[in-house]
Prior knowledge:
Blueprint: H1 17-29, H2 36-49, E1 53-57, H3 60-70, E2 78-82, H4 87-95, E3 99-103, H5 114-120, E4 125-129, H6 140-150, E5 153-157, E6 165-166, E7 169-170, E8 177-181, E9 194-198, H7 201-210, H8 244-255, H9 257-274, E10 290-291, E11 297-300, H10 303-306, H11 310-319, H12 335-341, H13 349-357, E12 358-361, H14 369-385
Parallel strand pairs: 2-3, 2-4, 4-5, 5-8
Antiparallel strand pairs: 1-9, 6-7, 6-10, 8-9, 11-12
Helix pairs in contact: 1-8, 2-8, 3-4
Amino acid sequence: MDRRDRFLVFGAPKITDDEIQEVISTMKTGWLGTGPKVARFEADFKRYKNADHAIAVNSCTAALQLSIYAAGIQAGDEVITSSLTFCATVNAIIHSGAKPVLADCDIMTQCISPESILEKITSKTKAIIPVHFAGNACDMDAIMSIADKYNLIVIEDCAHAIETKYKGQHVGTFGNFGCFSFYVTKNVMTGEGGMVLAKNKNDADQIKILALHGMSKDAWHRFSDKGYQHYDVVAPGFKCNMMDLQAAIGIHQLKRVEQNLQIRKKIWDYYQREFEHLPFSLPVEPRSHVRHGYHLYTILVDSEKCKMSRDELIFALHSENIGTGVHYRSIPMHLYYQKEFGWHPSQFPNSEKIGSQTISLPLSAALNEQDVEDVVYAVKKILERK
Ligand SMILES: *Cc1c(COP(=O)(O)O)cnc(C)c1O
């Protein structure tokens, strides 16, 4: 009777008339592909992140693949990343021919553990891909000093961490590359989309070339009215440029990035207060030197304490019309990786625990007060029945 009547879609984006009008006006110019709006979105993003170079692409997966390629990583190399991440992080390593090597995460921050990274370094290690989990920041002091000591490339997976800062510095600007996602559920979205931040100009130029078939940089002038020019293919590139249609959305999403962060922080704080006495564990508050991006609100469900399993709680919430997410079952829990690399979840106990207990509750700037109250009400109703 008191179940909400409309299903609350997990991670639904907040879209305003500004994006809609910009998309319409982009359509009317007839210039849908890569052009002036992409250039503006790159400039805006670069300024927001206080970064050296920004190249827009069509996903974070592409951003990771291009960064790995541009870094010269190849077969025979090893790349260390977190055992708690989205599969795309690991798949991007696999496609380069390099061997993915997993490090466990920290049980509190859910970010890659520097101690575990150290244990995994060999003479073949070429790079580290830390994942700034849920909007939290990895321990960048420790990671960068490991990278310095062993001469490793650092590619930051910032898919959750557009707004995140570590000791006042934006994440994605510590390593050689920072990779961002504008997938629909992310904090700034363009439907599909991504961005690479690069520290040095050479890398940035290479990413730009690789993102468009490997055609020389002048080829990008095909997208302007500077007159016809032949292009040269200088590398076997990929096809992952961003369209102006996507950038039209991103430009306005980015304008509201701080405003939306404050909305999500309020929801986070409300959950923290309301759930304080419930039998599951709450996400840890950010350490004082971290500015959290509040991308995911994740609880851990211990089936003994909650008298129900994580999956039972997910199904019960679904019956209450509340959509949830799981970020993530740990990488070694997936069959392919077990078969291919011989990994077992128990080798990464922190990721295993999180992977089997975590639930992400709705945390989107699109939620209204009633939505948030419905989430709290449903969670309490289910757990207090027990
Ligand atoms: C979403 C996500 C990606 C992939 O982003 P796409 O833009 O969908 O390719 C990579 N890593 C993490 C941690 C993510 O959450």
